[in-house]
């Protein structure tokens, strides 16, 4: 049976893989939250972030690259935070469920960052 550290790493990899896959399967919701200040098209950023999540997932899944992949995942979670802020701004006048849901996403980045950092730290030994 895998250790709890391995299970946590594989769960992080699965979470990243699911999110990355969604960027390609259902790109429109992601396109809408790309900050308008970024150059290029929202779809390019949606696909690029999907590739980044899938790459991090693959790196975290493999023991040899797990530490580096988890560090990259933590950085990715920080990097996509502006999109979550954009979503919260854009939904200010939306129905309450959407507005509160987008606001709730903001603090959820912190546990994701901590999770990736713990996976990285566990693989530094």
TrEMBL record:
UniProt keyword list: Membrane, Transmembrane, Transmembrane helix
Membrane association type: Multi-pass membrane protein
The keyword Coiled coil appears for this protein: no
Compartments, record wording: Membrane
GO cellular component: membrane
UniProt protein name: DoxX family protein
Organism: Allosaccharopolyspora coralli
